[in-house]
Write a structure and sequence with these properties.
573 residues, alpha/beta, 5 strands, globular
């Protein structure tokens, strides 16, 4: 009956969900952030008298939402490894997971409930979240700055590759940015002289949901500490129950993650400690700093990157200091500076600062608006938009480079190469498995890493149908004895218990850099395989292609008769 209703309502549910979700969140934000007397010393907000910007902003956001949904529905890009991996989480709903909080699994569960286990279903909420975020930011800017700046901020965020990518890929970052921003907008209302405990409760709610999205949300408490230090008039709230109520609400929402970890040996703490290199002695180097700054220079759009850094440094010389600028700085800069410090001794991934981008962009537009009459400022704004939209088009369809220039983009420079070829890898592995099944024994597929396992599971029909608690998986990840992914915590993924079964084992090889690169020579079977199976046979080296160009090399082995685990297990000569 449920499947029948889903089939009948599927065409309507996404539309209703999208519209109601946007209206509900805007209604909440309106209640939380209703106009109130400004903080002493602040600049009175400009009322949104020019309705043109409201119409333009609404039209752009709706067009972006529909365009992004159409792009995802076209199937031009396959799932990323994290998306496929976390899609498997959505089939095992829990209070938390090995490396991430649970909200990404719940979001993908809802998306695939509406649209089925498809790429579109997995990613449906990414453009929806981007649209909701855009409406939130415009609404706030229109009330606190002016509607023209709100529209400019929509264009800027659209022309920023880091944020544009999050509007198409359903990872933890869209959720993290959404709730960090919601907490920031609600917090501005809470720190006003008339801010009450109920306003702080909303701050705690959004921050709690942010924590359930990504652990980076804890840094927002550091941002609050910086703001109270920089803006004395706000400190009156520290003598009131509001901030402590927000902390309490945040802690209550964090309980599911804490309970789950207490039952799993605090495995997430161990994982995060290793990810951040907290346990190692500090060895300062400029290598990671240059890598981090260079990647952010490109991903944040070179023009807007420079404009933001300039604004973050220069607004301190402006007197009297605008509390809105201090607040935006405080809600973004501490996160960036924390990761900038970490990059002095360890690698920092480019997306880790994503929640800080919106508040720092708000600071940028607020600072440069006072100089908008200068011609060069307007020109560089247009240049930034031009660069961003051009990169956005290329990111969406890299084949345009070959069409325009006559020269295809090298495989190692194509930003879409990680989102292609997985369907072909799964098909090749599935064919090898079917061939081995003819010998009359069960056959499973063994992959080298969790992302690889997620991709093969999603794109191989037999494997996708076998996902879920109580089912025997078809695809597994190689295990080392120490928990390294969520697969190590699920009992059904203990493939070493399948004694006597056969397996197709996949090993990733070095990726080709150019189309003319020859296939790599097949290496001998790993010693670990020879110790786990009675017979190991190389099936050769295979490739996966995109647009006729090879983008992946991988080797497969046919492994027969898995041996019992333990020191007594020995392969026969």
């Amino acid at each position: 009956m449920n499947d029948y209703l889903r089939g009948q309502l599927a065409p309507l549910l996404p539309t209703v969900s999208t519209v109601e979700g946007i209206l509900a969140l805007l209604s909440i934000l309106w209640l939380v952030s209703a106009p109130s007397p400004n903080q002493a010393g602040s600049v009175p907000p400009t009322p949104p008298s020019d309705r043109r910007w409201w119409w333009w902003s609404g039209g752009v956001l709706v067009a972006l939402l529909l365009g992004r949904l159409a792009y995802l529905a076209s199937g031009r890009i396959e799932l990323s490894q994290d998306e496929a991996y976390q899609w498997i989480w959505s089939k095992h709903l829990a209070l938390s997971y090995y490396s991430k909080p649970p909200l990404i699994a719940y979001t993908q569960f809802l998306g695939t409930w509406l649209w089925g286990d498809t790429e579109f279903g997995v990613r449906f909420f990414a453009p929806v979240i981007a649209a909701v975020l855009g409406f939130m930011v415009f609404w706030f800017c229109a009330r606190e700055f002016n509607a023209r700046l709100g529209f400019a901020l929509i264009l800027i965020t659209t022309a920023t590759p880091l944020l544009a990518g999050g509007a198409n890929l359903m990872t933890i970052d869209p959720l993290s940015v959404l709730f960090w921003t919601a907490a920031m907008l609600a917090g501005w209302r809470a720190v006003q002289p008339g801010g009450a405990a109920r306003h702080w409760a909303w701050v705690g709610l959004w921050m709690g949901l942010g924590f359930l999205s990504k652990y980076t949300a804890l840094f927002q408490w550091l941002c609050w500490a910086v703001f109270f230090a920089l803006w004395p008039p706000a400190r009156r709230h520290l003598r009131r129950p509001g901030p402590y109520l927000a902390l309490l609400v945040n802690l209550l929402l964090a309980l599911p993650v804490l309970v789950w970890n207490s039952h799993h040996g605090w495995v997430t703490v161990t994982h995060l400690n290793g990810r951040a290199d907290f346990g190692d002695a500090l060895h300062f180097t400029s290598r990671f700093l240059v890598e981090f700054a260079g990647s952010e220079f490109g991903l944040l759009n070179p023009v807007f990157f420079v404009g933001t850094v300039w604004a973050a440094l220069a607004f301190w010389r402006v007197t009297p200091r605008d509390p809105r600028a201090v607040y935006c700085f405080s809600m973004g800069a501490p996160l960036v500076l924390a990761y900038l410090f970490q990059s002095l001794h360890a690698r920092v991934l480019q997306n880790w600062i994503a929640p800080a981008v919106v508040p720092l962009f708000m600071l940028m537009v607020l600072f440069w608006d006072s100089r908008r009459q200068e011609r060069w400022v307007r020109q560089w704004f247009r240049v930034g938009l031009g660069i961003g939209f051009l990169v956005l088009i290329v990111m969406s369809e890299t084949g345009l480079i070959g069409w325009v220039t006559g020269h295809e983009l090298p495989v190692n420079l194509d930003p879409l190469h990680r989102l292609q070829g997985w369907r072909e890898v799964a098909r090749t592995a599935g064919e090898a498995r079917r061939e081995l099944l003819k010998e009359g024994k069960p056959v499973f597929i063994l992959c080298p890493e969790y992302g690889f396992t997620g991709e093969i599971t999603f794109y191989l029909d037999a494997a996708r149908a076998a996902v879920g608690p109580g089912r025997q998986p078809v695809v597994y990840v190689q295990q080392t004895g120490q928990p390294e992914s969520q697969f190590d915590l699920w009992p059904e993924y203990r493939y070493r218990e399948r004694v006597g079964d056969n397996a197709i084992v996949i090993e990733r090889l070095e990726r080709p850099r150019h189309e003319t690169d020859p296939p790599p020579a097949p290496p001998p079977p790993p010693a670990s395989l020879r110790g786990e199976f009675r017979r190991v046979e190389s099936l050769g080296v295979f490739s996966a292609s995109y647009r006729g160009h090879k983008i992946w090399w991988f080797q497969m082995f046919a492994c027969r008769d898995q041996l019992p685990a333990g020191p007594e297990a020995r392969p026969s000569p």
